[in-house]
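User: Show me a protein chain along with its predicted structure.
Assistant: Here is one chain, sequence first, then structure tokens.
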Amino acid sequence: MTENQSSTNKFQAWWGGLSGNFRGILWLTMGTIAFALNDVLVKLLGKKFGPMELAFCRYFIGILILSPIFFRMGISGLKTQRLGIHMLRLVIACIAQVGVFYSVIHLYLADATAIAFSRPLFTTIIAVLLLSELVSSRRWAATAFGFVGVLIMVRPGHAGFDPVTVIALISACTFAIANVLIRLMSSTEPPNRILFYYHAGGAVIFLIPTIILWQNPVGIEWALLAGIGVMTTIGMTGFIRAFSVGEANAVGPMEYVRLIYAGALGYSIFGEVPDYWTFAGALIIIIATVYIARDEAKGPSRSADS
């Protein structure tokens, strides 16, 4: 046995000895760091490249990285009888992706990240409208509480109000719709098939706008553009792995550490200093969404009044 094989076996033994929740936390930590670094790349490149060009790189590089999985699935594994809902989700998610990139470019990283945490709040409302899910009164109260945090952050009508925050909120809502559509597909569509149509379709949708708006990258910009796809794929992998080995109640709250990464990276790289309204609103949103996640993990609501 070689030294490398021995080291690999020791690592596998150590890793296998960890609890599922702890491994999930480590996977999610990897995912949150990757997404935070991805936001840095988007903000840096956004000085020259538009959100649509960045979105094309995100989907094109992503499908290249995931292509071995898709090839193993073969035509039979990728074939679907629900192409319409795949396309609907694709268009909605692509619109949301452009909005997220635009927000990251023009807002402080901490602000854009905190507003993105409002997705579970929108998901509660959308799941009721699209799936007719029953939601407990406690969960409705938590959702309302979370939106108070959103209002504190956005401060509509205030002199410091930034219209870009509206785009960030619309993007969070739109991504929530896309996520609820996954629930509609989950009975017949495996995750990798959903990923295939999402990435392949995204690359196709943004190809022509990218050709029209193309700015020729110079030097390291090529690597940074590729990094968007790499970091997004690493982030997605971390989240999928995390929730596959750990309990949502234990693993999920670790996502909010991303706000610390965003604040630290925004300050150290871009000199951003978010005001206390951002952190106050973000804290309320986090408390509300953690409660919603824990309530959801208990199973379907027994009644709308429970």
